[in-house]
Amino acid sequence: MRRPLFILLFLFPIFLFAQNRNKQDAAAEKARKKQEKKDKINQLIKQEEEGALIFQKQTVYGLNFNTDGWSIFLEKGKYKTITKTNLWWLSFGERHHPKEEKIPTISSTGGLLIVSSYTYGKVNNFYALNAGLGSQKLLGGKGNKNGVAVSLIYGGGFSAGLLRHYYLEVLNSSSSVREVIKYTGTNKADFLNPTNILGRGGLTRGWNEIKFVPGFHTRTALRFDYGRYNEMVSAVEVGLNASYYTQNMPMVLDVPERKFFFNAYAAICFGKRK
After folding, report:
1. What is the rounded distance in angstroms from the CA atom of residue 145 to the CA atom of residue 229?
2. pTM (predicted TM-score)
């Protein structure tokens, strides 16, 4: 019994020494990497102050939270000078009308209760696909060691307005049969009669009936880049969008149809430089 205890007492200090050594090595490695990153940033700042381009290209992805919906985007940039970057982008999102109102519904079929909802008076889903060209101009942050830069982004381009029929599931008042309908111009009463509406007609309907309406858009924004001297892009953006289409875009019944749309947005941006 004494021998195993002796071995344990002999090995325990060695184990503690090894553990402490590993912690010291890990701390030293962490400090070394931190210093290397600091030295690299200082070198990039020095190169920039001397007029050299420290990056050539950037790719940015993002999610926009718009005042009238949402959108996602892909942006490519090519650095021309220290303060100017040429941009092109693609974005896709959905617009909602400020008059839209979701109505919850409860119905039964086969003895089962079905909880659903629909948007009252809605006749079309409105999607926007944008392709644009623009510039990113550095306003502040040059030589800032924390790497935060403030840039102005502006530009514009083509906009494709995409209208998809909004389907409703209704109860036929004469036959008491469930039906899925879309707005045809002659069934307005069915879309405005909550008594017979059971819910939305489904997300998979209408994609083969999309109507294309051409237009154009403009964009202006401020981007706050928190990873300016890193290869990884980490930024937030606030801005304004304006779009104009060649036809009115019907979205909700009994409200004026519009060709011009304007919104504000906040975006989360991430990506890579090289």
Report:
1. 9
2. 0.80
